[in-house]
Request: fold
Amino acid sequence: MSEKSLKERTARGLLWGGMSNGIMQLLGALFGLALMRLLTPADWGKVYMLNIFAALGAALQESGFIAALCNKKEPTDREYNAVFWFNMIVSVTLYIILWFMAPLIADFYNDPELTNLARFLFLGFLFSAMGTVQRAYLFGHMMVRETSICGITGMLVSGTVGVTMAWNGFAHWGIVSQTVTFVFIVQLMNWYYSKWRPSLKIDLRPAWEMFSFSSKLLITYVFNILNNHAFSVLLGKYFGNRQAGIYGTARKWDDMAAGTINGMVTAVAQPTLAQVADDNGRYVQIFRKMLRFVAFVSFPALLGLGMIAEEFILLAGGERWIESGRILTLLCIHGAFFPITTLYSNLTISRGHSGVNMACTIGQCLAVWAGLILLYVSGYEMIHMVVFFISLNVLWLGIWQWWAKRLIGMKWRWAAQDTMPFLGFTISILALTWWATKPIENLWLLMLSRIALAALLYAGIMWISGAKIMRETIGYLLHKKK
Reply:
């Protein structure tokens, strides 16, 4: 593929990915705000405590095959079919196992109501298995627009279902129904846009041949889930539903904001980098441009959210959610760096080193769990555990960069040049904005003033300083409008 064509597809993918994720996160925010008003922290906590099991089931049924198929330049119909039936067999088996394990999960959290709630929630990964290959087809062909339509449609339908049920008194069942409905609708849409269809000629051998690569990704996904859901397990077990809900809600808003940028990276990074894997010079050039774009967007967006977190949570849910606002302020630091971690992760996968990706993720997860458990038994409070979690995840970027230097020659100096200016400008602008707006007492006026002033200052400084990535982004958008 020519450089111009690849650049065009990458830019188009980033644009569509950004727009779709922005719309989805906006819809998710609107539905989330409605649910916060209708439900209590304890209601949310029940669902957050189960999310780790649903996420693990989804990872096991997908087994890393989407990335494995994408890493093949031209997957065959036989390979697609093998993966489809492998996923279906695994997912049905897992659902049966988890159905019988549901009472044990309820006993672990000392909440009998979780048995039926878990059994219904786990239907999500069963539905997801039906569309794994369709998602791989859309992903591998960089059909970002179609993927965007699938996600937005699923968000609209599922959000409506969730809010309607909560409004009618179904409480946490509304949240679970929203999750399951979203997965079901997205899979239907994936089937509509994907041209591939399974056949009854079942031959699992191609799936087993890919498993040496995908199994490492599977292990990576599992440890990523354990890392991201450590708090939901520990808080649910030792601190109760309410504390799990307080933290989980803060984490949800952080994930929504970071997910907008992370979705852009995920949609194009691995397919694009895989296309130039044989040309290291071009590979480094494209990776650095992606790194600059992520830093340019992620730092102001997430750290800016952290600046207004308390006002936002108070306006959204009222005083009963104030603790979530304080935790969200801290978690936004994690969110600001998370898309960069995702980009480095995609680097290792696109270079065929899924083992490196696996080792980095396992090490990070074990360090997180060990630290959190040690802090808990030492009597530290939740806020100290949150600070530890954020610090470790940010510092772990050094491990990813070390591997990037080994795999593609990505120098530490280059990484600093591509990210630190955006971080420095962002911190300076947010500090000035916070100081300038501090006297404002009305919460609505305070929050909106901080957003407007910070955005104006950041855009102005980026333009005056001649930030190339900003000019390229604006130039691409203006070109598309002509």
